Amino acid sequence: MDKDAWHERLETSADTPSELFEHFQARTDHGLEYYHLPDARHGLERGTVLVETTGAVVRGYPSVPRVLVLDPGVRHYFESDRVTIEEKLNGFNVRIADVDGTTAFTRGGYVCPYTTERARQLLDPGDFFADHPETMLCAELIGPENPYTVHDYDETETNAFRIFDVRDRTSGRPLAPERRRELCAEYGFEQPQTFGWHTIDDAPGAVRDAIETLDTESREGVVLKSEDGQSLLKYTTEATHHAELADAFALPFEYGRDFLFSRLLREAFQTVEFEDSPDRRRERAHDLGESILLPFAETIEAVADGETVGERHTVRGDPETINALLGHLREFQLTIDIESDRRLEGERVVTFTKVAASTNDRIEHYLDGGIVDE
Amino acid sequence: MDKDAWHERLETSADTPSELFEHFQARTDHGLEYYHLPDARHGLERGTVLVETTGAVVRGYPSVPRVLVLDPGVRHYFESDRVTIEEKLNGFNVRIADVDGTTAFTRGGYVCPYTTERARQLLDPGDFFADHPETMLCAELIGPENPYTVHDYDETETNAFRIFDVRDRTSGRPLAPERRRELCAEYGFEQPQTFGWHTIDDAPGAVRDAIETLDTESREGVVLKSEDGQSLLKYTTEATHHAELADAFALPFEYGRDFLFSRLLREAFQTVEFEDSPDRRRERAHDLGESILLPFAETIEAVADGETVGERHTVRGDPETINALLGHLREFQLTIDIESDRRLEGERVVTFTKVAASTNDRIEHYLDGGIVDE
């Protein structure tokens, strides 16, 4: 399809085809020619994909805003009288669509060869797409064997998908959450647990109850959704704030300054709104301090001992997929250290480290006596 | 003096007078006409002052680098065989020179009317400048009654100066530390405490000992100096890292992200180099967490209760000086809330809050349910 035709088909605020395509990038992966949008522009979400090969549009998943204060934040944000509360899972967020076969796209709009293969195997969505060709499954790939996130869930030994949204892939419009739950149940797709529907006035209390339960299980948090599924709002647990800081400070020079501050912000507003007792707040502060200093110091010690630090992942799949995945990661300038690479029941299982270059370099510099000029 | 004449007199890397003056700003304070340099440029330090009225140059105080790791940091940094260790005080850093009378300049090169008056009264440096007209006293104004810093010292009830350097004000060249100590003693000027001279190999251990002593007294840290006084290096205590974080998180939206990260960096390298036991490190982590979360949450609660938050200071002086000081602060777009204003033994004593506008505004926004779009 030429650029004029794409421009005419898309509902975009770009006035001309060239204005629209200025921010799209062209790629070809496994015979699929497509354009993808690395940042939200012209009324299109980040990760929006235009498939040259088939003419399909796969809209990006919208960025979900957060409130720091549930009351009155929830009431101010939603126009809907009722909201549903669902668990927000900590995994790898993809959109799965039938464009020249089942294909999984990352948040940024790249084809992920590993997730694509996992989706074909674990979801087997052929029947679903035969009945609903124009939709996309918005899913979290969770479990220890994934190449992107390090969070584990007790219920998942290798990987699993949870479908948290079904959307029209051309317009991006979501199914209403109630309809989506029915539809996914019908096709046997697993979904995040739900904490039910609540009136807008009851919702802050219901979120607090859900958050307390999730927090004791070290789970991430919740997403609130309006009746039509169009308005989304997220809120996370203390365990998540601390775990994210601990992950970040294990690789302290890889994560931006804003990353740090935003998590501290969530903690501070949460301890105030939850009216933590002085003892409880102090305990929270201690856990917070531990999540910052302990991983940071351990990483310095590891570098001092000559180790190479980075994020460790294990992946499993047919040999070709694993090859494609490693190529895909290296294409993003990542340095991959393979720790083990073996066959297990016909599959290839690889454990590797994504080398954290800045952290290794900066820590070595300071250990060598490098000065900080302030 | 015209710009050509200044350009000829100064040792600067600027090729032309206009290149030199591009970054200087002109000011007049209490009849003193001068140019000052807000940032280091053209081989001249930040805060360098050119006095039109008298033709005097007052060079800025150089930025003092820091190491995160004493061994080998100290050995790599110094060329000198011996270094001296002196206490680094936490106060307000000024240069005091005789330019049309004793005048105190801030780090940025502004005349501070309050510090000028304090210097005339507390130091009375007339005799010193009569004998050494071409020098400047580099001093820390410490004590609770100052308009810039909040740190207190047990030994100081109101304010006191400590002279940590004497420099030629035109060339910026320092006296050797040994000579400076004799000279200051001769004129009765107090100086920071010294931890003696050490060989370069013994210095890291000596700094550790000094830091341990200073840490138990919640004092800031040390500055190492070469024999000629030209090379300077600083290193700070755990107590300072935590206190600075606590001050910053009492006004969390006023301080940059880099402020936060740089303190965490110092903590992490220090706990590694000091080989803290697991229990000691955990205790440090808890104190760190408390210094972040507790003041942050208390400030949110204060704003929720309708208070205006900011930094609280008390100053004391003759009524005219206090007027000049408040005018000086307001000139920098600070909002000053006067809490009390009274006369005590012929002096005016004012307690005021510098209103922290970003912190008040952002916290109110989030308390009202403002969303964070990530």
Summarize the helices and strands and which ones pair or pack.
The structure is a homodimer.
Chain A: H1 3-9, H2 17-21, E1 25-29, E2 32-36, E3 49-51, E4 57-58, E5 66-67, H3 70-77, E6 82-88, E7 92-98, E8 102-105, H4 113-123, H5 126-131, E9 135-142, E10 160-168, H6 177-187, E11 194-199, H7 203-216, E12 221-226, E13 232-236, H8 238-250, H9 257-273, H10 278-304, E14 310-317, H11 319-331, E15 336-344, E16 347-355, H12 357-367, E17 371-372
Antiparallel strand pairs in A: 1-2, 2-3, 3-4, 6-11, 6-12, 7-8, 7-9, 9-10, 12-13, 14-16, 15-16
Structure explained in plain terms:
- Two copies of one chain form a homodimer.
- The first copy, chain A, is of the alpha+beta class and 374 residues long.
- The first copy, chain A, has three domains: 70-236, DNA ligase/mRNA capping enzyme (D-amino Acid Aminotransferase, Chain A, domain 1, 2-Layer Sandwich), CATH 3.30.470; 239-304, Up-down Bundle (Methane Monooxygenase Hydroxylase, Chain G, domain 1); 310-355.
- Helix content of chain A is 38%, strand content 26%.
- Chain A has twelve helices and 17 strands.
- The first copy, chain A, has helices at 3-9, 17-21, 70-77, 113-123, 126-131, 177-187, 203-216, 238-250, 257-273, 278-304, 319-331, 357-367, and strands at residues 25-29, 32-36, 49-51, 57-58, 66-67, 82-88, 92-98, 102-105, 135-142, 160-168, 194-199, 221-226, 232-236, 310-317, 336-344, 347-355, 371-372.
- In chain A, the strands form four sheets. In chain A, strands 1-2-3-4 form a four-stranded antiparallel beta sheet, with no helix packed on it. In chain A, strands 11-6-12-13 form a four-stranded antiparallel beta sheet. In chain A, strands 8-7-9-10 form a four-stranded antiparallel beta sheet.
- In chain A, strand 15 (336-344) and strand 16 (347-355) form a beta hairpin.
- In chain A, helix 3 (70-77) packs across helix 7 and helix 8 runs parallel beside helix 10.
- The longest helix of chain A is centred in the last third of the chain and has 27 residues, at 278-304.
- Chain A is globular and about 60 Å long.
- The mean pLDDT of chain A is 94.
- The interface between A and B is large, with 56 and 56 residues.
- Strand 5 (66-67) of chain A pairs antiparallel with strand 17 (371-372) of chain B, so a sheet runs across the interface.
